[in-house]
Amino acid sequence: MKLSKKTIIISSIVFVLIAILIAAVAIIKFNVNKPRNLLKALPDVDLQIKGFVYTEVGEANAKWEVKAETATYNKKLNLAVFDRVQIKLTTSDGKVFEMSADKGRMFTDKKNVEIKDNVVIISDTGDRFSTDHLSYNDAEKKFYTDAPVTMENKSMKISGQGLSIYMNKGELNILSSVKARII
User: Fold this and answer.
1) What digits encode the pLDDT tens for the residues 76-116?
2) Are 13 and 21 in contact (CB under 8 A)?
3) Distance from the Cα of residue 9 to its chain's centroid
4) CATH of 47-182, one of 2.60.450.10, 2.40.50.100, 2.60.40.10, 3.30.2420.10
5) Per-residue b/e over 26-37, b at no fewer than 16 CB within 10 Å?
6) For the chain, which residues make up each domain, given as ranges?
7) This prediction's pTM
8) CB-based burial of residue 72 (10 Å sphere; 0-12 exposed, 13-18 middle, 19+ buried)?
9) Cα–Cα distance between 69 and 99 in angstroms, integer?
10) Rounded to an integer, what distance in angstroms lies between the CA atom of residue 76 and that of residue 168?
11) Measured between alpha carbons, how far is 168 from 112 in angstroms, rounded to an integer?
């Protein structure tokens, strides 16, 4: 049986179209099943974590917990950088302070922390503090700032310059230029 030239051309075109279709399906399937990069390669970053949580229990049951939406870590600098950070501090005498800020960083070798931008501190008694930046020195077990601070609760508003919170003593001080208004 001899095939006509027309049949051979149509058969060749159908064969080529089927081969192209099979190749297209294989390429699409390969790309769909290919794993996506979940973390972006960032310069000078050894690790990036979403949903970061760090807890430390210290002397006399003083405890602090650091949470962040994202954290990056640079091992050479011993530096963790946080976005949308929250810190829960429980002092040795059971007082609780919850702190939040837009940004923060921890020097992991010394366990010193700095938070900044929209810093808010809320105590378990309802006192609300706000400032621009706040630092923690692990050697002194002390949170502090030299920035303006405002403290508010349902009965008064206090403003001043600087703030110190001593974890081991459960002590909080506004350092200078203190002004108070009874509400």
Assistant:
1) 888 999 999 999 988 777 888 899 999 999 998 988 999 99
2) no
3) 64
4) 2.60.450.10
5) eeeeeeeeeeee
6) 1-34, 47-182
7) 0.68
8) buried
9) 14
10) 31
11) 16
